[in-house]
Amino acid sequence: MLAKVAAGDVLLVTPLDRLARSIRDLLNTLAAITGTGAGFTSLGDAWADTTKPHGRLMLTVLGGLAEFECELIRARAKAGGVRLDRPPEAHPLPAARGSQPPRQRRATHCDHPLV
């Protein structure tokens, strides 16, 4: 879809969640769209409209909040000793003996609510 968007086009979506699954994904997609000189409008969310100044402002604020949330998660994970990457592969020896290796817990945005 993004390969067919040209300068001067306006991409319309009805519900915003049909375009992206997360705020970070939405902002990356919108950056690709506006990078081609095209605009974006969500019919279901009036604030998400890059063809108008107030829509660009709202998306800029959303981008700042998304970045802030990522930084908070990283800081809290570092302070609490939580790993944010994929757990290492389990060694085959404990499984061969019939015992289970300890389960690695991954941090999510739900583990660390915003203050």
* Global morphology: elongated
CATH level 4 superfamily of the domain at 8-83:
Resolvase, N-terminal catalytic domain
| CATH class designation of the domain at 8-83 | Alpha Beta
Sheet bearing the most strands, described?
2 strands, parallel
For the terminal residues, how far apart are their CA atoms?
Answer: 38 Å
| CATH topology-level name of the domain at 8-83 | Rossmann fold
Helical content (DSSP H or I, runs of 4+):
40-55%
The chain-level mean pLDDT equals: 77
Number of helices: 3
Description:
This protein has helices spanning 23-35, 53-80, 92-96, and strands at residues 10-13, 39-42. The protein has 115 residues and is mainly alpha-helical. It has a domain at 8-83: Resolvase, N-terminal catalytic domain (Rossmann fold, 3-Layer(aba) Sandwich). The chain has a two-stranded parallel ribbon. The longest helix is centred in the middle third of the chain and has 28 residues, at 53-80. It is elongated.
Short description:
The chain has 115 residues and is mainly α. The protein has helices spanning 23-35, 53-80, 92-96; strands spanning 10-13, 39-42.
Helix-strand layout with pairing:
Layout: E1 10-13, H1 23-35, E2 39-42, H2 53-80, H3 92-96
Parallel strand pairs: 1-2
Please supply descriptive tags for the structure shown above.
3 helices, single chain, 115 residues, 2 strands, mainly alpha, elongated, 7% strand, Rossmann fold, two-stranded parallel ribbon
